[in-house]
Amino acid sequence: MSQVLPAEGGLRRIIGDGATLPDGEVEGLSADDLLALYRNLVLLRTYDERSVVYHRQGRIGTYAIFWNHEAMQVGSVFALEERDWIFPSYRDSAIGLLRGMPVSTVLSWWRGHPAGWWNPHDYNVASICVPIGTQVPHAVGFAWGSRLKGEDRVAIVNFGDGATSEGSFHEGATFAGVMKAPVIFFCNNNQWAISTPLAKQTAAPTLADKAIGYGMPGLRVDGGDVLAVYEATREAVARARAGEGPTFIEAVTYRVAPHATADDPSSYIDEERVEEEKEHECVGRYERYLKRLGLLTEEHEEQVRKGALELMRAGMAEAEAEPPPDLALVFEHAYAAPPPGLADDLAELRRILGQ
Amino acid sequence: MTQLLLVEAVNEALHVEMERDPAVLVMGEDVGRLGGVFRATVGLQDRFGADRCVDTPLAEAGILGTAVGLCMAGWRPVCEMQYDAFSYPALDQLINHVGRYRWRTRGKMSFPLVVRMPYGGGVRAPELHDDSPETYYVHTPGVKVAIPSTPADAKGLLAAAIRDPDPVVVFEPKLIYRTARGEVPEGEHVVPLGEARVAREGSDVTLVAYGAMVVVAERAADALEGEASCEVLDLRTLKPLDEAALLTSVAKTGRAVLVQEAPRVCGFAAEVAAVLAEKAIFDLRGPVLRVTGYDVPYPHWQLEDAYMPSVERVVDAVRRLLAA
User: For the segment B258-274, what is each residue's pLDDT rounded down to a tens digit?
Assistant: First the structure.
């Protein structure tokens, strides 16, 4: 029996500030690993920044910005094996890029094109979950079901601070504890659910404290520190693989961008705090860390950024080259064996539209 | 053939299908050690073990939500909702995910899960143990719905649901769990989804019913013997609806009385009436009449007989229709 204790007090941190806070290191990570983490951070950062531009250009629809969430996505996924499954929320829409998903697939999703739906088995990444926290029990069921089949696979489910108020989170966490499911609850606490601050979301001292109620350990990490996120997730994965059950990780950050492109936070957010937090944004922090270690040169940095930009340009071109979806897709795929009426509906629609 | 009660036929279907397919897993509240509050799952945990007949926490959205994940891991979960109204928290998962996930993956992933639940009134139970929530389920795209009225169909429809690649919800009429007794084929027995059953042939009026209301329709047909020849059509599957059987029967009789326990507005009878209006209007010799529950919360049980469609109300509707 593992002991379940109240959550760690402070936030776990590895990356220092180059002044008073010393840099730490994560055992077992090679220089290549550290640079791979960097490339992944830049890939997601570039995806996010370009998406906001594409939205302004009218080339994608409403988009949920994840700027400054990259360290949480990259660090947690780096602790997984390819066979492990990821259950993303909409704010993790591009997490599949870390598993080789084409950029055009994710862009198509935000373009409202059916090419944006993928086969989860191709990447071991579940579909983007729009309703808050409702993917939590899916991850739990998958992890539990995999263990029952004797398969060595863990699941990670990503969600935000607001999701911890949802019934689905509670029921999923309850099941995970009872079934000892090999699942990691990864909470990106950016302290805002659209306009609702954390203090109005919960009276719990920390979100990780909730873990104790489900009989699982709760860890707290600095969500802007990709190495701390990686290390905490690696521990949770090890617990899961050892049959010790689920772990809750609260990664604390601050939402410095609007909730989505349709949101104007100026009426509710403290702009000074936002500017302050931007100073510590996660990609820059990691870049400075690598430079202090002598692992990253300006030249390499430039090369990585350029590569990511090119990938985005090519991905957007590919997404825009998708032909308009055929009408039949309105009716297909909801059923393996569709009720006969749907074929009639399609035929009628084609007749009316003269197709 | 053996004689079984309806609930025993459910139990037998689960035994046969779990034996046939090792991916089938039964889960729900009290389904394991106890064998279910209605004993529908009795014996399964002893036979197949606690990993395949799982006592879950008391969390219906958790049951259905983890069932989605179990499908992704290759299982075919059969979830019991302990009572009709207890399933409402699970609608979150049903509407948001169960009916949509296959479509989301452009047909690449299947979600062959089954939800089965005892439903309906007349059992002298406390509030919210008596509901007929089938409309919520039928209205959800991507989900199929079946409701047996005989022991043989209870076994065969559940087997079909378990084998179906799509999510299927099976409502079991608890009122007749232990009063409906009948011949049930032994071993594997499948009643295809989407096929209605003519429970009784007649020529003057078609009584369309499903679940426990088939019994009420049959008794009304008995009561009208000599006065009106009633055909009783047991829909068996609400989605996909067997429109051909419905239209064939109404083309013959020219009249339809639709019987359902659920409240009237937007109940399944409204859908049947709409199909008749669209596709059988020239066969009809009078209005389509509905005998349903009322648009009120299901009453306390001392008043429930007044709420439930009765033989008297069905007979009255047939007489009004014949006089029209």
Answer: 999 999 999 999 999 99
